[in-house]
Amino acid sequence: MTFTALSGSALLGGLVATAAVLYALQRLRVRHESRTVVTSLFWREATEETRARSLFERFRHPLAYAMALLCAGLMLLGAGRLDADRYEGLRHVLLLDASAGMARTVGETTRFAQAQAALAAELEQSPRDRTEVLWCGEHVRTILAPGEDRALLGPRLAGRNPDLAPGTLDRALRSRASMGDGEGAGRRFVLFGDTPVAPSTLAALGADERVERAALAPVIDGGVGITAMGVSEPASGRWGMVDLFIETRGGSTSLFDLILTLDGERFERGVVIGTDGDRRGFLISDVPAAGALLEARLDTAGEAADGDLVADDVASIRLPSRPPIRVAVDGLAPAFGAAVRAVLAADTAVELVEGAGEADVVVGGASAGRPSLRFPSSTDQEEAILIGHDREEDSNSALASAVGELGLDRVDASALAESLGRPLAVGALPSDVRSVAIWSDLMDPSRTSFLESRAFPVLVGRSIRWLAAVPDLTPYRAIGRLEPTALDGARSSLAAMVTVDLDAASLLDPATTAPVTAGVSLAEPSPEGAGPWRLYTWVLLLALAALSAEWALFQRGRMP
């Protein structure tokens, strides 16, 4: 057994002081009543009882003193919060939700302030050496380790605000569950915030672990905000343009207007392309890809139910910059050169220039150190297609990705090999400058029909883009969600997706904008952090029973 509100010495001192005070009260004289003496034989005793100058009388009521001491002692034990679980080594992990949703206002305060107050109250009742506090914002970190003075928590939280990020309570709880306790005494997790916890996370906890959610004011539903933003290749196929997708959650279209600006200038937005409950998608086609900062803002005009959370009312994204690819064509046979020029002229991504010195990519002639698309003879090159890739890239990986990136999957290699009478091979090697070398034999109209096929312009166009190292667009991004898998390859790593050109901010997860409270609540502890039927609760009930027994004895005349 241990006491979570009082130390052992304080409790012992309180019991001694209580016993002394009650003893003194038992000896104090009470106000005397008038008595009628029926015979002079009892006159001396009556005189002894009515001495006016006597402050104390002899101790004559041990039963009354024992009952009073029992009641007072039990109440003092209850005030000390006797707790068996904490004495048995139970470890307490307090998780403070510092996600964006905790910035939501409730009256004159915020959810975050309420959570901090509840955390402070719980911390006062928990043993210092077996209690830790975790900050669950954008990242999970320990802000009060076991054994540290709880007075350090206030300065460490001073001036801190919730992070503009989805909640990490579930991730922190799952991480702690996977780590295990290490001491076998059990753990008690208390969540201070609104972020939901997945049932699978709760199922992963051990038999000696339990999770509680601190009781805060009810969560306000009905928020409206921007939950996703992303860009993709334009459906129109126009180079230098991107299609922009924005998703909002909550509210209704009559409560807000979506305002878009490009580097501060108003930009006309698109229309709603689909709805799913309170979810709305906006598609803005052919937005100039010139590196401008696009900002989307919800204009609620003070009528939306989301007026208490403004972090998700604005989101911004840096659009990619896609200038034309300058291409120089030189050193090709007249007929073949004309065919290549016709393909490049039809490509909106290409700007034809004269001279390799002005070009980003050189086709045919001397490259002058520029990325190049060359057409050597089969006698000069063993492979039908040879790719020169960046030196830091693995040749096998470069060759595997080239199938989709260069459009080689569109080429009918079997028909071409049959026309040439020899097998076709594709190779890759490291190079200081990117290059693509294709047999000129494949372009000979007398031997193959490759120039007339649909694969030829695709191969040339994609080769130009790969040689110019045009960055891929992230087709869709929402914080807290996985990116979709590209059709022509596996999903790249998250670090590679979050690029400077696609730097998004202030996007929140849907659960923050439109909180879902049904089915995510946990057992709620009392304001002190313990359940309503802890051991000290039973002690207080026993004290009440003792008081009731004392009153009954007094009413029956068995106790003075």
Write the layout of secondary structure elements.
Blueprint: E1 2-3, H1 8-27, H2 43-49, H3 62-79, E2 82-83, H4 84-87, E3 91-97, E4 105-106, E5 109-110, H5 111-124, E6 131-136, E7 140-144, H6 153-157, H7 169-179, E8 187-192, H8 199-203, E9 209-213, E10 225-232, E11 241-249, E12 257-262, E13 265-267, E14 271-276, E15 279-288, E16 293-299, E17 314-318, E18 325-330, H9 334-346, E19 350-353, E20 361-364, E21 372-374, E22 385-390, H10 395-405, H11 413-420, E23 426-431, E24 435-438, H12 455-467, H13 494-497, E25 504-505, H14 510-513, H15 535-555
Parallel strand pairs: 3-6, 3-8, 8-9, 18-19, 18-20, 20-21, 21-24, 22-23
Antiparallel strand pairs: 1-2, 4-5, 6-7, 10-11, 11-15, 12-13, 12-16, 14-15, 16-17, 17-25, 22-24
Helix pairs in contact: 1-3, 3-15
Q: What structural class results from the helix and strand content?
A: alpha/beta
CATH superfamily of the largest domain: von Willebrand factor, type A domain
Strand line-up across the major sheet? 19-18-20-21-24-22-23
Low-pLDDT runs of 5+ residues are 303-307, 478-508, 516-521, 523-533
Number of helices: 15
CATH class of the largest domain: Alpha Beta
Number of β-strand runs: 25
- Which word captures the global form? elongated
- Beta-sheet strand percentage? 15-25%
Termini gap: 35 Å
The largest pleated sheet is described as:
7 strands, mixed
Please tell me the CATH architecture of the largest domain by its name.
Answer: 3-Layer(aba) Sandwich
Mean pLDDT: 74
Level of helix content?
Answer: 25-40%
Alpha carbon gyration radius: 40 Å
Number of domains: 4
